[in-house]
Amino acid sequence: MILLTGATGFIGSRVLQALSLKNLQVRCLARKQKTSDNPNITYMTGDALDRNSLVAATKGVDTVYYFIHMMGNQPKGEQKRFDVLDRTAIENMVEACKINGVKRIIHLTGMRNPNEKLSHHLKSRKEVEDIIRNSGIDYTIFRASVIIGRGGAAFDILDTVVKKFPVIPVLDWEDTQVQPIFIDDVIKYLVECLGKKETVNKCFDIGCSQVLTYKELIQQYAEELGLKRTFIRIPGSWHRISSMVLGKLSPVDPNVVYWLIESLQNNMVCELNDLNKIFGFEPVSFKESLRRSIIRNNALIR
């Protein structure tokens, strides 16, 4: 039995779809009661901040997919508390897993450079990862930077900037390096690792073969859309103003926009690993991921 958290989210919903094709028994943790027509998929109400509900949800479970992030879930004036909530949630889950003998936790988190001072967001992501790694429970952890796909916060912000700003301010994040990855490749790693013992108790950075700056990401996306964009260099980060503007124009929660913009200062480049050998595939290029996302989005609009 698999317990899937975040089953309605950007990552979790796609993992659920992929797991359903494998005819696996999946229990989804949800805050509100839901039902499924698929006999292999069940829903259980619960909350990561309620330890007892997690104990109930993990009974009879072998593997937990942990996709819970509290960023953006705080009331006004308490936005900085997401790290406290994230810590509580993962500590509750680890305790519940130990009580019920869960064998493995599979987790997706943010990539980071260990030699840099981390943003508030990435520091919290690292803390959650460390709690999982030190829990004594087997784990597989994947770290990604920008995930290319509609519904992903970072991509939706990128999409907003490219489509709504003919003149794009280039701030202090201009030369920050990232290694983006297409959403389908992320899901492939997350689902296929179930049957690969080589991934147990390992952490992997995942990304396409290209390393790009944020400015290059914007330039190449504009080119794929056939849009001409002008860049103007402005000294400073303009963090708060940028997040206020993008929070109103993009479909992303303004609090999430704020913390993601703060993280633009952190480089996210993959460390060498043996993923190609283990999984037998290489993620598609950045431009190909853009093309596929554009085609998919156009199909939805029609």
Notable features of this structure?
two-stranded parallel ribbon, 11 helices, 302 residues, 13 strands, 41% helix, alpha/beta, globular
How is the topology of this model organized?
Elements: E1 2-4, H1 12-21, E2 26-30, E3 41-45, H2 51-57, E4 63-66, H3 82-100, E5 104-110, H4 120-133, E6 138-144, E7 147-148, H5 153-164, E8 167-170, E9 177-178, E10 181-182, H6 183-192, E11 202-206, E12 212-213, H7 214-225, E13 230-233, H8 239-249, H9 254-262, H10 275-279, H11 286-301
Parallel strand pairs: 1-2, 1-4, 2-3, 4-5, 5-6, 6-11, 7-10, 8-13
Antiparallel strand pairs: 9-12
Helix pairs in contact: 1-6, 2-3, 3-4, 5-7, 7-11, 8-9
Care to describe what's here?
The chain is α/β, with parallel strands linked by helices. It has helices spanning 12-21, 51-57, 82-100, 120-133, 153-164, 183-192, 214-225, 239-249, 254-262, 275-279, 286-301; strands spanning 2-4, 26-30, 41-45, 63-66, 104-110, 138-144, 147-148, 167-170, 177-178, 181-182, 202-206, 212-213, 230-233. It is globular. Helix 4 links the parallel strand 5 (104-110) and strand 6 (138-144). The chain starts with a strand and ends with a helix. It contains 11 helices and 13 strands. Helix 2 (51-57) packs across helix 3 (82-100) and helix 3 runs parallel beside helix 4.
